[in-house]
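Hey L., structure's done. Input below.
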Amino acid sequence: MAFLASTKTKFKDMWETGSFGSLSKSLGALALVLVMVILALGFYWDSEPALFDVKQNTRTMADARGLTTVTGSATITTMMTMTDVLLHKRGGYLTNDIMLPSIWMDNVPNWEFGVLVQVRDMARTLRNNLSRSQSQSTEDLRLVTAENQFYFDNDTWVLPETEGEYEKGIEALDDYLHRLSDPNQPTAQFYARADNLRAWLSEVETRLGSLSQRLSASVGKRQLDTSLAGDSAARSSTATDAETELKTPWLELDDVFYEARGTTWAVILLLRAIEVDFADVLEKKNATVSLQQIIRELEPTQDTLWSPMVLNGDGLGVLANHSLVMGSHISRANAAIIDLRRLLEEG
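Output:
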């Protein structure tokens, strides 16, 4: 009872002297400063890395490791650098963060996912095609490790954390790069053949085609079901509507847009690496300029977005529609990839 009486007396004194008001003002000021710091940090982290010089990056990484550049060096070093940028860019890897301001941010995590998908696709192509002379040849075990590591969940923050698993993937690629450059280890190979390039381009074509459709759905569109067109005997497991209405939800517009930004960032870099490693193949097929044109079509996707938000105006309306602009660049690049694949097959 004495303790309660003493506590009551202290609160009464604080009230009469105005100490409560001073305390509340101090806490309010502290909360305001904390909010401003969080907002400033979120603004600082909300940026996308710039493209880097693939040829210079290849030389720098080879020199740092005392290696000779060989066929495949550009592709492997580009993959390693892309993943390193993904993990150590401004703000680090944000997809699996559970603290402020990361948990409020979605643009950069969607950009990260776009890059990650391209790293995974190239890792799979390396394991299944580029490192093997034929379908019956043995897989490179370190490339098996690399692919498995990059397919680890992208949003795990502890036990184990995503960043640690992707770092192991980079280490596996680094081991493959060392063996690739060592003439005493002929089992590590990178086969720059037209059929292998077509296999990877097929993966890119599928990804870009899907993104183009999702971006164009920002304004909504009616689409006929052409899944079974061209084959009278074709059947699907379940019946589908002859016509469907596709429209991206308003809250997901920026998600798709920034995933496309990440995807095209990664594709541009990998295409520049392909131009180096497959130079002879492209020259023989007279396809170098075709590859360069694909890169040109994709480069505008990395232009600065000056609007504070992704606008979603009607196709011919007053406001811009950033998704349709992005989709236009990707569609043209995808059409050029289809032509390049056909050229590599028939040329």
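The radius of gyration is 26 Å. The first strand starts at residue 221 and ends at 224.

-- N.
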